[in-house]
Amino acid sequence: MTDFTPVDLFGGALNAALPSTFADVSDIRQVPDHQEVWLDKDGFTSIIFEILERVEMSDPEALKYHLQDLVEEDAGETRVWTSGEVYFRMLPEGTPAYTLFATSPAGEKQRGRRNEPDFVGVLLTMVRLESQKTDLLMVINVPHVSGSYDEGEVDPASGKHGRLLEQGMDLRGKVLESFQIKDWGLFVQEE
């Protein structure tokens, strides 16, 4: 059982419970101001919290748009397995939120590198904050590096996720349960 610890994000404006094995990437390298990136010290999984300007399109189109932006050159090879609405326990009632599970090849930038993943599981969650003109993304990347998982246990087409993706889905569930906005001033306010 993984221990989860409340973590302040964006200077304490946001908060979520993350596994105690996750470390703030900004302690070792520069991270853009609109992102918080946390990496599992004991594996390859990461979670990114990203604040973006709201895209003016339907919610399902916005979710697809953000996924394509994330996977860039591999968008044509990325496969979405499930998607739907989700509920954040600590956000105001009726806050639109959506999630999807996709798999993507390693990506051009990773090919040929040590510990290159066979594929990456992507658990993308999007919160639409209309009054704040913001799309808030939470992206859990679950790289599947040869030797770190049992290939026979992973077959998204038949609903088999394997240990790594199950851990990523547990993390997503804990974020849905614990994520809160403590300072709405972080976002642009509609006038």
UniProtKB/TrEMBL annotation:
InterPro entries named in the record: Mog1, Mog1/PsbP_a/b/a-sand
Keywords linked to the UniProt accession: Protein transport, Transport
One Gene Ontology CC term in the entry: nucleus
GO biological process, one term: protein import into nucleus
Superkingdom of source: Eukaryota
Gene3D superfamilies per UniProt: Mog1/PsbP, alpha/beta/alpha sandwich
Pfam families the UniProt entry points to: Mog1
Molecular-function annotations in GO: guanyl-nucleotide exchange factor activity; small GTPase binding
PANTHER family noted in UniProt: RAN GUANINE NUCLEOTIDE RELEASE FACTOR
Similarity comment: family membership: Belongs to the MOG1 family.
Protein name: Mog1p/PsbP-like protein
